Amino acid sequence: MVIFILTSTGNPASSISQVSGESVSEGSELVSQDSDELVVNVYGHTGEPETGFDPLLGWGCGHVNFEPLIQSTLFKSADDGSMINDLATNYSVSSDGKVWTVNIRDNVRFTDGEKLTAEDVAFTFNTAIGSNSELDMSNLEKATAINDTAVKFELKEPQSSFIWKLRYVGIVPEHAYEKETYGSNPIGSGPYKLIQWDRSQQAIFELNEDYYGKKPYFKKITMLFLDKDTAFAAAKSGEVDIAEIEISHANQTIDGYNLIALPAARALGVSFPMQNDTGKESLKGDPIGNNVTADIAIRKALNIGIDREALLEGVISGKGDVEYTGVDQRNYGNPEARINDSNLEEARKMLENAEWKDTDGDGIREKNGTNAEFKLYYSSDDQTRQALSVAVSEQAKKLGIKIDLVGANWDEIYANQYSSAVLYAYSNIDTFTLYLQYHSKEADDTYRNPGLYSNPVVDGYLEAALRAEDQDEATKYWQLAAYDGNTGYGPAGDATWLWLVTTDYLYMANESLEMGTPQKNAGSDVLGNIYEWKRVNTASSTSK
Q: Residue 44 sits in which domain range?
């Protein structure tokens, strides 16, 4: 394969046309790419890390979790999605669930030659407390190094999901960490080291020859920071090995590239305000409550009447799956919480029985003088969310429910989430986010539990899941929270959301790449199995 590189700067990103990707900057020349070098644009959903490659400020963990490349983590994910050791050799949890003890390898060094010890692990997690809200270390009291190879984590409350914090937070060196500068010049013990960062353009990583684990085939990775449309153009002109693309490009082809669709269990759905409008406001003065969506008949009817299969094929070209609970694809999802959808007759009957009737013949049902009508907010920057919102509103008309669409920015969306429906996405695999999504709370102006759902039975299951002594027991309670045969947050219970589809992450990958077995439901972390990648048939790869 040949890529376009400006030989004066060594910067492939600077040669890519921001309009079509078909041209290169004047004065550039073609430079052959070695087979063990990789050019990628894979984090279009997160973008360039503004604070640099610092895990304590969100790199690799937080809102979206992914392989940090530079730093090691205590655990990592196997191809089947199970948890396996990385730095850790084993761990144990106390009987009260509040103390986690993790033993680590004794043969690991940072890229500056210093040995990694339990002191560095403790320092990393203690520094993470309060350093970035996305990390949410609020339940960690402190971490203490017992000796060079054992660290103790003391929690304020039992938290079975704490394993996910240990999975995604990269370990930084205590002796070389400065918050102001580390992100630009990170030192780690992962498979790669950062050698160059051209802000707004690219980052270049080189193989860490002293890495303790299985060494990746690729000795150099150039990561470009392009939006998805520009990344698609870059693939068309042969300038990248792999590029994350928009669903709008799903039916297009590029000579010499394969379209890769990786399941990520990234669920999109409509949140419903669960409280009636009584004039209450949040601390910021935002309205709370909606008298239409607070009626369970409206929520259930939409869940039963909406044709999810039509949304899957019509909006996202089949690149995903239908979704009912938000976590159908996860091992802690509960199949019993799902319902049979696309049943207009049953949905209409449910509305009639709940006294939602169209008495004036205008196509919109009413009850006690209130129309079956509510607003649905979506991000105006997201084509997929807009298309889903339009499709849902069209289907809802068949039920006599009018949905008014509002494309807005996120500040406007958050200000209206307690009184209007919102098209949200849910993709974090950390089970603690499930707790945050459905446990009772006040209007705290965060996007978790935007409907202000409150069910003491569900709260009990969620709390029991966190207190569970092992992951199997926790899974049982996570599933009961969705539906226990009587109640739950899922559509068979309280129907707190109208979950619609899960979307795959789509990539154009050069046909010379052999990418191994992608990690289960981790499509957003395409580099998570970089240890398995290699290049084949390089002689057949040509420039565009």
A: 1-48+199-256+511-544
